[in-house]
Structures are given as C-alpha cells and as structure tokens.
Design a protein that fits this description.
- There is one protein chain.
- The chain contains 25 helices and 42 strands.
- The chain is of the alpha+beta class and 885 residues long.
- Strands 27, 28, 29, 32, 36, 37, 39, 40, 41 and 42 form a 10-stranded mixed sheet that branches.
- Helix 5 runs parallel beside helix 13 and helix 11 packs across helix 12.
C-alpha cells in the first residue's frame, strides 16, 4: 500500500487511518481468485493504494482501465460502451453476475423488456419469464463529482463480487445482474480529481474546483432527466427507458459533513402522486434492509425518512415514473479525499424528518463524532450495495412479478381512469419546440401516435396529424407527470401545522414549459383509438431544399438559431418591422428574413433549426431592417456557476457566439471596444462584486483558492456603468439584477455622478409577508408588439423563484423605464407551488431601463432556467437584437 506522507497526518490520524484501512481490507480476507490472471487486479496492487484511503484518488481513465482489465480477465464481467460525455469521454456500463447470466445477457434483456412493457402476457408465459429472469440492479455512481466515494468504491465492489468464495454472494449473483455505471459524470470526475491533487497537502487542501464540474451544468446534472439536454444524462436514461429495463436502481450521492452519516430509503414526504403505491413500498423494503444490514455491520449514523423527499424528479432520474424501484443514498462527505474531524457539538439534524441529532426510530444508532474518512464512506458504499444485492436476490421472483404487475396496472388505469389521452396539435406557433418535444417523448420510451383523421372529443376539434399520447401504456405515470400541470401535494408535519416544504422545484410540465398547446382528454373513445397510428420513428418534417429569400417566423425558437447560423455563413439577415401575410400564412413582427449567400445551405439550416421557412420571392419589397450579430460578453464566476453554464449550453445549442468574462477582469477590460452586450446570469451580487459568497454585509469564508476570489470591485463596477452610459446594453436576471439597485456612482469627464436606476427589489419584504415560491411556472403578461416580445403570445409561462421582486419608480434626468412583462392580477400560478400568490399580483417581472445612451433588460425570472423553459427563450433572444434607443 502507498502510505500517506507523514507530514499530512498526526499520530492520532495515523492510528485512525490504519483502522479504517484495516476494516476495508477485512472485506477481502476470504477472497480466492478464480483465475491466476485476476491476482494483479487486486485493487490495492493495481492502483498502488487501497481505494478509499486518505488523500488518494484515481481518475476516470484509471477507473475504466481497471474495469476493462477485469472484464477481459473474468467471465463474470461484461463492459459495454453506452455513449459519450459532453467533453468526449466514453461512458460505460459494467455488468457483473454469474458466468451463466453474463453469457445469457441478451436473453435476459428480452425477458426484462417483456415483463416491463407487455401487459398481455399469458399466465404460462409470464410464469416462464419470471422463472428464467433475473433482477437487474442498476447503480449510477458519483453523478456529482465532488461526491467521489461511490466511484472510488467501484473497483472494490467489482473485485469482491468477482472473486468472493462466499456461497451467499454466489447465490446473489445467480439471481441478480449488477449493472454499474462507474461514473455518471466522467468529465467532472477528472476535473475534481485533478483539482484535488493540485492542492493536496498544501494550505488549501480540499479547495473547491473553480468552475462547474461538467462541461455545462455541474451539480444540476440530475435536474436534467426530463429535458435530457446533456449527452451523459441521455446515455444514462437510455438504460431504463429503451435498452435494459432494470427493475431496481440506486443513485449514489454524498451530502454535507455534519449531519447523519448515511441516508437510506424510504424518503420523507412529499412523494410523487402519480407513482404506484406498491413501488413506494418496495423502496421501504430495500431501505429497511439497508438500515438493518449496515447497523448490523457496526456502521453508525445511518438514517432514513429524513432530509430527502421523492416528489421532484431529480432523486431517481425519472425512473420511478417508469416503474423502476428507484432509490437514493447519501453519505456525509469529507474534504474530497482528506479526512475531517467532527466535534460532537458540530453534529446536527437538518432537513425533514429528524428534529434532533439523537436516537430515533429512523436514526437508531447515532454516530458520536470523531474522524470521518473517505474509507468510512467507501465501506458504506460497499455494504449498502451488497445489501441491495441481497434483497434483490431474496425477492427475485416477487420483484420480477411486480414489474409486470405494475405494467398491467398502469395500462389498465389508462383504460379505466381519466385522463385517457393527451393530445398535442400538430399546428403550433413554435414548430421547433413541437419537433423537439415529440422526439423527446420517444427518447423517454413513451408510445406516441398520430391521428389519421379529424375527430371531435371532449368538445375539441382534433385534426389529422395531431399527436396523441394515450395513458394506457406502461409508462403511464411518466406521461401524466410531464403532460399535466403540477399541483404540489401539500403535507403538514402535524394536522394544521407547518407545511413540509419541497426539496427542489415544483414544476416540469413539458407543454407548459415549452409553450405548446395540449389537451387533456377525460372521455375514452374507442372510435378515436381506431384513428391513431403508432409513431415508430423520429419526427423530422423539415426536409428538402428551400429558396431565398426565406422568412423564418418569429414565433419559433428555431428561427433565432437559423438567423445566427445564416449570419455566420455570411448571409444577410433582417427582421420584419411589420407583420405580413404570404400564401395565407401570417408572419409577425420580428420574423427573420434571410437572403443573399448560398441558397444550398438553407436546407441544412432549416433542418437544424427544426423550422420551415416561407419563400418570400414574390412578396415584393419587404418591410425589414438588417440586423448584425452583437459582440456578447457572458459573465461567469468561478463559484460553480451553474446558471452561467446553462446559458453557455443554450448559446452553444443556438449557435450564438459569445466570450466569457470573469468579474475580476472588468477593471482592466476595454468593455466598450470589445462588447455590445454584457449578460449577467443569475448569481449573488456579492460573488460578482467581491468574489465572496453571502451578502455584502454578511460575506463568509470561501472554499476557493484566493486566485479565484476576485470580484468586479468598485473600479470594475464603474467601468460597467460607463459602458452602459455610453451606449452599451446589459441583460441580467435573477439575483444578478441586484447589482443595479441602490445608489450607483461613476465619474464622467472628471465629475462624479450619483444616481439610482428607477427600480428596486422588494423580495425581502415579500418573504417576510409570507411569499414562498421554491420554483414554479407563473403567468407573465407581455407588452404586445414590443421588440423584446416579438414572437411571443400576450401571456406566457416563466419560471420564477421569488427573488427578485421588482418595483419600478419614476425616473429622473437621463433615465427611463418600461414594464415589458408583469404578473397578472389573478390566476398567476400555472404549475407548481406558491404561498401568498396574491403578493405577486400586477408586479413587474421584466423591465427595460435606459441610462444615458445605454439600455438594460432585467428579468426577475430565469428566461433559460436549466434549459427547460423554452416558452421564455424568445424574451432573452429578442434582447440580443434590441435596437439602439
């Protein structure tokens, strides 16, 4: 074993470290390698240190190299590529089971598929499949890359399964196929490991990574399992949506350092209401067995029914809505791989379900405090994995039977309980979002159909070509969950007492978030069902070539993509100043006219943009003005700036060119020469101004190296204000808008000018008055025909979290303001949860400001929230083309 250098550890640490390593090593005392070639693959020999030992981490490449070698050496292992990460690393799934099961993987996969998707199996056929089938248990490891232990435990788990002579382990692997994604986020794993090693053993040991641990989204990657925007989340989702249909799944995470040591299922309330009740019971079976097995193994600090709920989709990657027994575990963290000493008084209960850090029915053996090490977490990961494996084996036939039972129940509910169908008309204002929606539902494994003839149902005249999603299908709960408006299940800690707050956001309705019209049909009609045909291939209606000049409608998000692509290809891009009608089709203000350049490129542009243009050759002189691509600066802090990352993803997807600028670079940048627009995604004011978390009056210690704790400072802020005053444009949303509140100052021609822009943030007062909106879709009423609202309906859904809350004021001197969008007086909430909704009535949510020659566009909501609010994208895109004022 490679020991940690003595200068990293005290004598007490050395003794505690030795005990931890000894515990891990005892897991392997009974191992007898089946083949001589396995001996060099003992994890300690292979890596040069025991995985889980203090200060030691391997990279993603080292991990997958080890598993590839184990795959070649053992007939109990099969390793398959499942996709690529956003940065181009290959992603894998590793199957570990008995040699016979590995030989029969494809046959077993077909059994999985039949049990998961076929509600019409005969009893004899079903009995045969259950008799021959195996439980497939999927574990996805270390999605959040600072949560290193699950992936560091992977070689130990694989080695123990492959080499164990324990007859019980062999029995488990006869009954169960363990499916391991060794790391869910390969890019982030390498970034975190490299950053940790950079500072290991220095004053800044454990310093945070100064960027998101992903190409784009960082910690938000488990928030992507409905929209499936990222390549790694799509690779994982295919496993249970389309390819393998496992019956059991666990997502392995870590959490803060001072609470319980290990969270196991079942979860706390609230839970997803569309999920079958028996599935929740199964999570209790697995979780209770984990609690018993871990406690029986002498592991303390294990708790359940606390902290985490199962209402929002991030905890289990949407698999519970697809009939998988989906679970979550969370371990208390160390400083990446460096141990922590926790004093007893620092231990505390937090979140739901545990009010005191003390012995409780859901926390039977509290951890007393002391040294907490990576090896401790690794042991928890090993023990919990084998506990799930054991439970899956003990209940093999019941679990397989349940998988087909729930398939049958969901289909029968769809036939006997309303709603029976969701219908999405083919005629939509935004063709690009319709196309992407239809293909996204296919990617989720949902059966979609098309209506072959007109039909009237529930008083709605449906048209041939409309898309139909019957509820009588195995993934019924998913279809209903993503098609309906979310209504948060309000639960209380006691009758009439405090509401149990949601863990995360409360709205994810795909039609509402994407601005698509859809109908919920509550009457079953077999004649209607006779008119629908299965959509068995991707929907790709935009094909062929198109002629110039071409007009792309402003109502389509794809039109903005087309405009940016065309402009970068040297084509002329203009926008209509007035609405026109061509061949009976209305093209509104702001629609893009593309002319000049290579007409052969237009077909590819339209296909990528998922938007069909209209030929305008016979329309005469068009009322249009040419637009140019602005020079855009996108502000991204070093503090795991996920909202900036999502903005980068959106801009890259829509081919919008930009340059990243850090807050600390403002003071020395020539903003007026380099940029036309500066964009501030949602971030705390103090992080941008001073490079520190917290508020201006209450900053707290940062976990980052000092090199990355630089904000704009007074000089940088003054440069920003001068940029605006001299004609620059600023776009900002969320808490970043606080930068522009209060008394501001700049020096112009030797004279200091103090001013206050004509708006304020009143969120603190609203919060004191009871406003609570953890993340919901709310209605925004828009100023029609304003350039910032081109292509938008008169009202739209935007994603809002309660801060900021704007109020405008009467301007002075060279300033002005206009409210572009405001919340209505009533019926504000469209989907999700909000307390004291009336406090939002009539309040501005999108405002335009003028100062000097410059302009600001401020949003209280995130117009691109997690790339899942397509209905609001145009409010951001239009701001990029805002003309000079």
């Amino acid at each position: 074993m490679k020991l940690i250098p003595h200068q990293y550890r005290t004598m007490k640490e050395t003794r505690s470290f030795s005990v931890t390593v000894l515990i891990i090593c005892t897991l392997f005392l009974c191992l007898r390698p089946a083949q001589a070639q396995l001996s060099p693959l003992q994890p300690e020999k292979h890596f040069g240190f025991m995985p889980g030992s203090d200060y030691n981490l391997f990279t993603y490449e080292e991990l997958t190299d080890y598993l590839m070698k184990l795959d070649k050496a053992s007939p109990m292992v099969a390793m398959e590529e499942i996709g690529e990460s956003p940065m181009g690393r290959k992603m894998y799934i590793v199957f570990i089971s008995s040699e016979k099961n590995i030989e029969n993987l494809q046959k077993l996969r077909e059994i999985n598929r039949e049990l998961a998707l076929n509600p019409d199996l005969s009893e004899d056929r079903r009995k045969d499949l259950i008799a021959d089938g195996k439980v497939f248990f999927l574990a996805t490891l270390s999605m959040h890359s600072t949560e290193v232990a699950p992936s560091q435990a992977a070689p130990l788990i694989a080695w123990q399964m492959v080499t164990s002579s324990d007859p019980l382990v062999k029995k488990y692997l006869d009954d169960v196929v363990y499916m391991m994604v060794p790391n869910h986020n390969p890019d982030g794993m390498d970034l975190v490991v490299e950053n940790y090693k950079k500072y290991r053993g220095t004053q800044y040991d454990g310093a945070s990574l100064p960027q998101v641990y992903h190409k784009y989204v960082g910690h938000d990657n488990n928030r992507d399992f409905i929209s499936l925007t990222q390549e790694d989340t799509r690779a994982i989702a295919r496993i249970y949506n389309l390819d393998w249909f496992p019956q059991v799944m666990v997502e392995k995470h870590q959490m803060g350092s001072t609470g319980i040591r290990y969270y196991v299922p079942p979860a706390h309330d609230p839970i997803a209401q569309n999920v079958d009740g028996e599935l929740w019971s199964w999570t209790g079976v697995f979780g209770t067995n984990m609690l018993r097995d871990l406690t029986g193994a002498g592991l303390t600090g294990v708790g359940q029914k606390t902290i985490f709920d199962m209402y929002w989709p991030g905890s289990t990657e949407t698999c519970i809505w697809k009939n998988v027994i989906g679970m979550l575990t969370e371990a208390a963290s160390v400083q990446v791989a460096s141990p922590l000493y926790i004093e007893p008084n620092e231990l505390q209960a937090s979140g739901k379900g545990l009010s005191e850090y003390d012995k409780s029915i859901n926390f039977p053996v509290p951890w007393p405090g002391g040294w907490w090490r990576l090896g401790d977490i690794v042991r928890l990961e090993i023990e919990s994995t084998f506990s799930i494996l054991k439970t899956a084996s003990l209940h093999r036939s019941d679990i397989l039977r349940f998988r087909n039972d729930i398939c049958r129940r969901e289909v029968e509910k769809g036939r006997s309980e309303p709603p029976y169908y969701y219908v999405v008309p083919a005629a939509q204002a935004d063709q690009s979002e319709l196309i992407r929606f239809v293909n996204l539902m296919r990617e989720h494994g949902v059966n979609g159909y098309r209506l072959t003839a007109d039909h009237t149902l529930d008083g709605i005249n449906l048209k041939a070509g409309d898309f139909v999603y019957p509820l009588a299908q195995p993934f019924r709960s998913f279809v209903r969950e993503v098609m309906e408006s979310q209504e948060f299940p309000v639960r209380h800690y006691s009758p009439g007492g405090e509401v149990i707050r949601p863990y995360d956001v409360t709205s994810w309705s795909l039609p509402l978030h994407r601005g698509l019209t859809s109908y919920e049909i509550t009457s079953r009609d077999q004649a209607f069902e006779g008119k629908i045909t299965l959509l068995d291939e991707d929907y790709a209606p935009v094909q062929g070539s198109f002629r110039l000049p071409a007009i792309f409608p402003a109502t389509s998000n794809g039109s903005f993509m087309a405009a940016f692509i065309a402009a970068q290809k040297g084509m002329k891009v203009s926008r209509l100043e007035n609405a026109i009608t061509i061949d009976g089709r209305l093209l509104g203000k702001g629609s893009f006219v593309i002319s000049g350049g290579d007409a052969t490129a237009l077909g590819a542009i339209a296909k990528e943009a998922c938007t069909e243009p209209v030929y305008a050759g016979g329309a005469g002189k068009l009322p249009a003005s040419e637009v140019k691509i602005p020079k855009i600066a996108l502000v991204e802090t070093y503090f795991s700036d996920m909202d900036a990352g999502w903005t980068r993803y959106l801009f890259d997807t829509y081919k919008i060119p930009y340059k990243i600028i850090r807050p600390g670079e403002f003071a020395n940048a020539d903003l007026e020469r380099e940029f036309d627009i500066i964009i501030f995604p949602n971030s705390q004011k103090n992080m941008i101004m001073n490079g520190k978390p917290g508020s201006e009056g209450g900053a707290y210690m940062s976990s980052y190296h000092p090199d990355y704790q630089k904000g704009m400072g007074k000089k940088g802020m003054e440069k920003l204000l001068l940029f605006i005053n001299n004609g620059g444009r600023v776009i900002a949303w969320g808490q970043s808008t606080d930068l522009f509140t209060g008394l501001l100052a700049m020096t112009v021609d030797g004279t200091t000018e103090e001013f206050t822009l004509p708006f304020a943030n009143t969120a603190d007062q609203a919060r004191r008055d009871g406003l609570s909106i953890p993340g919901a879709l709310v209605r925004l009423e828009l100023k029609e025909n304003h350039p910032l609202a081109y292509g938008m309906p008169s009202s739209a859904g935007v994603f809002y979290r309660g801060n900021p809350l704007f109020r405008t004021t009467v301007p002075r001197f060279d300033m002005d303001r206009r409210v572009i969008g405001h919340f209505p007086e009533k019926e504000i909430l469209m989907s999700g949860y909000c307390e004291k909704e009336g406090l939002l009535a009539g309040v501005p949510a999108m405002i335009w400001l003028k100062k000097g020659k410059g302009q600001l566009v401020l949003y209280s909501f995130n117009p691109q929230f997690r790339a899942s609010t397509q209905a609001a994208y145009k409010l951001l895109f239009n701001a990029l083309f805002l003309p000079e004022h």
